[in-house]
């Protein structure tokens, strides 16, 4: 039998190194981990769960409408994290406004932000999806936080992580001291430490971008991808491979494992809708940038470091260029030249 370090043990042991630690952070991470296990279970059941629910038509026995997995995941994250006294409020990609806790629950010192099920277009086709989360400190003396209290730069994140629901379920976490990887042991029901201090290789020959948007990109991105496609004969002097899962969690996970560059750049298609790119700063770009930087990679909008951006609103979208340092710096330099 393999007796590994559990996620809980890992966090408690790290907390012991800080004299002021109260256990609240461990409590919060435990609840996030429990929520991710529940979501993982739902994702794993996939069509089976739907068939069972579907027997009575589109409504279940209580007369409630059958809910999609991304809505259920949002409910699980809220239900698991609202009661424990660790958070003051939450913000979710699935909610229009921030989520203030019901009166009966004690207020904690953290703000929790999440994308409950990222990669939604992959749910129905049984391709990896994930949950992304970011933890901020609630400003001192605030009892009932407002959306403005969430608008903190990415550099202030206390922790960030994601759960990947793939062939196995993994939790990847940073508290600003390296990136660590835990794998869910389904027999024991615990996340077990499987890799400490994950690092992204500096050099890469693999890019990830949705090529169907090519005609909408700006010149620096067109130039870079064109150079990648020219391979050894082009100015970059190396052949590139390409991947696009359309699940950012899977994309970042691959980059943590073997390097690569991921881009969802600014494009005229999203600009026409009044958005700067597709991905959300608070639920996707900031937590992933924290993880990538902690693993030795880089993350920019093409023009500036994502973690240093001053957020304007909770659902703000930003262009994202992240991954192996050398290539991210190259793409950023192309933008800044123009
Ligand atoms: P979602 O949060 O609605 O699932 O959207 C985010 C996802 C990312 O995981 C992924 O990188 C991107 O959208 C894929 O977009 P596209 O379908 O345009 O390729
Ligand atoms: Mg998402």
Commentary on this structure:
The chain has an 8-stranded mixed β-sheet, with helices on both faces. A 5-stranded mixed β-sheet has the order 10-9-11-15-13, with helices on both faces. A two-stranded antiparallel ribbon has the order 12-14. Helix 1 packs antiparallel against helix 2 (24-54), helix 2 runs antiparallel to helix 3 (69-81) and helix 5 (219-230) crosses helix 9. The protein starts with 6 loop residues before the first helix and ends with a helix. It has helices at 7-15, 24-54, 69-81, 147-150, 219-230, 248-258, 268-271, 281-294, 325-337, and strands spanning 87-92, 99-100, 110-118, 129-137, 159-165, 169-174, 179-185, 190-195, 206-208, 241-242, 261-264, 279-280, 298-300, 317-318, 320-323. It is 33% helix and 21% strand. It is globular and about 60 Å long. It is α+β, with helices and mostly antiparallel strands and 338 residues long. It has 2 domains: 7-195, 2-Layer Sandwich (Fructose-1,6-Bisphosphatase, Chain A, domain 1); 206-337, D-Maltodextrin-Binding Protein, domain 2 (3-Layer(aba) Sandwich). The longest helix has 31 residues, at 24-54. Residues 51-58 have low confidence and may be disordered. The relative contact order is 0.13. 2,5-anhydro-1,6-di-O-phosphono-D-mannitol binds at residues 93, 115, 118-121, 210, 246-248, 251, 264, 278.
């Amino acid at each position: 039998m393999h007796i590994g370090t559990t996620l809980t043990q890992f966090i408690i042991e790290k907390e012991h190194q800080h004299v002021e630690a109260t256990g609240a952070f461990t409590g919060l991470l435990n609840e996030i981990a429990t929520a991710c296990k529940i979501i993982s279970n739902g994702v794993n059941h996939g069509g089976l769960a739907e068939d069972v629910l579907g027997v009575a038509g589109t409504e279940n026995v209580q007369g409630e409408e059958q809910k999609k997995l991304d809505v259920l995941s949002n409910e699980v994250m809220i239900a698991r994290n609202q009661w424990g006294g660790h958070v003051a409020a939450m913000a979710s990609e699935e909610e229009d406004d921030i989520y203030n806790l019901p009166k009966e629950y004690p207020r904690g010192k953290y703000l929790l932000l999440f994308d409950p099920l990222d990669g939604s277009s992959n749910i129905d086709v049984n391709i990896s999806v994930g949950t992304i989360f970011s933890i901020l400190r609630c400003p001192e003396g605030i009892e009932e936080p407002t959306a403005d209290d969430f608008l903190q730069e990415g550099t202030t994140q206390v922790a960030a992580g994601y759960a990947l629901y793939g062939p196995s379920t993994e939790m990847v976490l940073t508290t600003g001291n390296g990136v660590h990887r835990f794998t869910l042991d389904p027999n024991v029901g615990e996340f077990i430490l499987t890799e400490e201090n994950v690092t992204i290789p500096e050099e890469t020959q693999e890019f990830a971008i949705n090529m169907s948007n090519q005609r909408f990109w700006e010149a620096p991105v067109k130039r870079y991808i064109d150079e990648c496609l020219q391979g050894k004969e082009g100015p970059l002097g190396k052949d590139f491979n390409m991947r696009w899962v359309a699940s950012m969690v899977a994309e970042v996970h691959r980059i943590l494992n073997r390097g690569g560059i991921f881009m969802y750049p600014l494009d005229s298609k999203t600009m026409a809708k009044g958005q700067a790119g597709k991905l959300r700063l608070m639920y996707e770009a900031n937590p992933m940038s924290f993880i990538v930087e902690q693993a030795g990679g880089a993350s920019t909008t093409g023009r500036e470091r994502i973690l240093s951006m001053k957020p304007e609103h909770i659902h703000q979208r930003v262009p994202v260029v992240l991954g192996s340092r050398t290539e991210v710096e190259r793409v950023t330099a192309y933008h800044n030249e123009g």
